[in-house]
Amino acid sequence: xxxxxxxxxxxxxxxxxxxxxxxxxxxxxxxxxxxxxxxxxxxxxxxxxxxxxxxxxxxxxxxxxxxxxxxxxxxxxxxxxxxxxxxxxxxxxxxxxxxxxxxxxxxxxxxxxxxxxxxxxxxxxxxx
Length: 128
Known about the structure:
The chain is an alpha+beta fold. It has helices spanning about 5-15, 60-75, 80, 85-95, 100-120, and strands at about 25-30, 40-45, 50-60. The protein is built from five helices and three strands. Strands 1-2-3 form a three-stranded antiparallel beta sheet. A hairpin with a 2-residue loop joins β2 (about 40-45) and β3.
């Protein structure tokens, strides 16, 4: 059996939404000291909907794929749905991750949550 699913390899080789949003409404950055992975998410939000999202990830194939898939899962979604994104949903959308790589999907969830916290600090009236 292959270590990674075809979807993980696709999102690693052809990551979606890579980059920086200079005028982002929210930015979240998280890291895992054990593995050295670092994820940064940039969100553009209009009328409580994530209209654009970009990421920068320093890490392994699972970290890049998790970042890429997470952006795909929340782009165009209302904040209420974005707040409910779980690492399990990211891993399932990638057709699974090896157990010892599940922390990568956790990082993706945490980076998005950190970006949302940044947004709600800047715009407390927008908290849903």
